[in-house]
């Protein structure tokens, strides 16, 4: 089977038109730009205005109580306007019901808004969890518009990281194996996934996870595409993997259930003519992987 599927372009949480503008991050003049704007967050949620993101002038929020590190610089928009983001310590200044949980409702945003909001969310989470230097334990401080943190004691520079995760559709003949975690909504099934461990290739990680979670012997892994997943900072690397047979032994500590679904069943779910399972949300790579699998018969 060959995969020529092109996922939704841009891929959810990717394809931002904002130029990171690395050389200009630390420049104070960007704050004074007449068209500079800032996105607003509170506790990981982003303030929205319909399908767009709510914008405020940086000067208007400078006096509000902000979470560390204050305003972060996200980059320059297509017309050169600087865009920042800030995480408010309380939401009393925001319009009612403007905060959005990106994980649950991100599909309501435009693709570009989703991408830039996801990036900012990931960066804020990194700042929140890295107040101290991993080398010496002293306090760190944000630098270059939030692009890094530096330690005043040992001068180590710390940068935001992304964590690689393999997410793989297990295929055998004309069926695909999906699993569901404990506590997921009833009927919701998705592709299996796991973090890549030190010393592993992507293929080795998928093989190990397949054996651990469902006792499947996997081979023939093929890379399709990847997707940022800012909850908090994963890079989801999508594969299709071949199972030696349909025998599975579900590790009930890891999964509540795993089940084979035929192509006809998956097709019916995506065409809303069948209910064999509840499909993954559109903003997930699992949704895109299943669409890719369906498009390659
Ligand atoms: Zn240090």
Automatic annotation (TrEMBL):
<dbReference type="GO" id="GO:0005829">
    <property type="term" value="C:cytosol"/>
</dbReference>
<dbReference type="GO" id="GO:0035529">
    <property type="term" value="F:NADH pyrophosphatase activity"/>
</dbReference>
<dbReference type="Pfam" id="PF09296">
    <property type="entry name" value="NUDIX-like"/>
</dbReference>
<keyword id="KW-0460">Magnesium</keyword>
<protein>
    <recommendedName>
        <fullName>NAD(+) diphosphatase</fullName>
        <ecNumber>3.6.1.22</ecNumber>
    </recommendedName>
</protein>
<dbReference type="Pfam" id="PF09297">
    <property type="entry name" value="Zn_ribbon_NUD"/>
</dbReference>
<comment type="similarity">
    <text>Belongs to the Nudix hydrolase family. NudC subfamily.</text>
</comment>
<dbReference type="InterPro" id="IPR050241">
    <property type="entry name" value="NAD-cap_RNA_hydrolase_NudC"/>
</dbReference>
<dbReference type="GO" id="GO:0006742">
    <property type="term" value="P:NADP+ catabolic process"/>
</dbReference>
<keyword id="KW-0378">Hydrolase</keyword>
<dbReference type="InterPro" id="IPR049734">
    <property type="entry name" value="NudC-like_C"/>
</dbReference>
<feature type="domain" description="Nudix hydrolase">
    <location>
        <begin position="160"/>
        <end position="283"/>
    </location>
</feature>
<dbReference type="InterPro" id="IPR015797">
    <property type="entry name" value="NUDIX_hydrolase-like_dom_sf"/>
</dbReference>
<dbReference type="InterPro" id="IPR015376">
    <property type="entry name" value="Znr_NADH_PPase"/>
</dbReference>
<dbReference type="Pfam" id="PF00293">
    <property type="entry name" value="NUDIX"/>
</dbReference>
<dbReference type="GO" id="GO:0046872">
    <property type="term" value="F:metal ion binding"/>
</dbReference>
<dbReference type="InterPro" id="IPR020084">
    <property type="entry name" value="NUDIX_hydrolase_CS"/>
</dbReference>
<keyword id="KW-0520">NAD</keyword>
<dbReference type="InterPro" id="IPR015375">
    <property type="entry name" value="NADH_PPase-like_N"/>
</dbReference>
<keyword id="KW-0479">Metal-binding</keyword>
<dbReference type="GO" id="GO:0019677">
    <property type="term" value="P:NAD+ catabolic process"/>
</dbReference>
<dbReference type="InterPro" id="IPR000086">
    <property type="entry name" value="NUDIX_hydrolase_dom"/>
</dbReference>
């Amino acid at each position: 089977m060959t995969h020529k599927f092109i996922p939704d372009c841009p891929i959810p949480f990717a394809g931002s038109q904002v130029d990171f503008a690395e050389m200009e991050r630390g420049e104070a003049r960007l704050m004074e730009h007449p068209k500079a704007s800032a996105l607003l967050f509170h506790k990981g949620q982003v303030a929205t205005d319909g399908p767009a993101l709510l914008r405020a002038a940086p000067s208007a929020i400078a006096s509000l109580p902000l979470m560390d590190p204050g305003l972060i610089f996200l980059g320059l928009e297509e017309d050169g306007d600087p865009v920042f983001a800030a995480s408010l310590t309380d939401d009393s200044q925001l319009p009612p019901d403007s905060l959005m949980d990106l994980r649950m409702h991100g599909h309501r945003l435009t693709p570009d808004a989703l991408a830039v909001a996801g990036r900012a969310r990931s960066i804020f989470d990194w700042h929140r969890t890295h107040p101290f230097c991993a080398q010496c334990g002293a306090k760190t401080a944000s630098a270059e518009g939030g692009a890094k943190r530096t330690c005043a004691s040992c001068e180590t520079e710390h940068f935001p990281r992304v964590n690689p995760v393999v997410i793989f559709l297990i295929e055998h003949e004309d069926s695909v194996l999906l699993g569901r975690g404990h506590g997921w909504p009833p009927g919701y099934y998705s592709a299996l996934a796991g973090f890549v461990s030190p010393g592993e290739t992507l293929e080795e990680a998928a093989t190990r996870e397949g054996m651990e979670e469902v006792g499947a012997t996997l081979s023939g892994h093929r890379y399709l595409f990847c997707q940022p997943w800012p909850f908090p900072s994963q890079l989801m690397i999508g594969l299709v993997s071949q199972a030696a047979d349909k025998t599975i032994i579900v590790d009930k500590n890891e999964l509540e259930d795993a089940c084979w679904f035929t192509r006809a069943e998956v097709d019916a779910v995506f065409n809303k003519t069948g209910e064999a399972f509840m499909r993954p949300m559109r903003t997930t790579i699992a949704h895109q992987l299943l669409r890719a699998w369906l498009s390659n018969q």
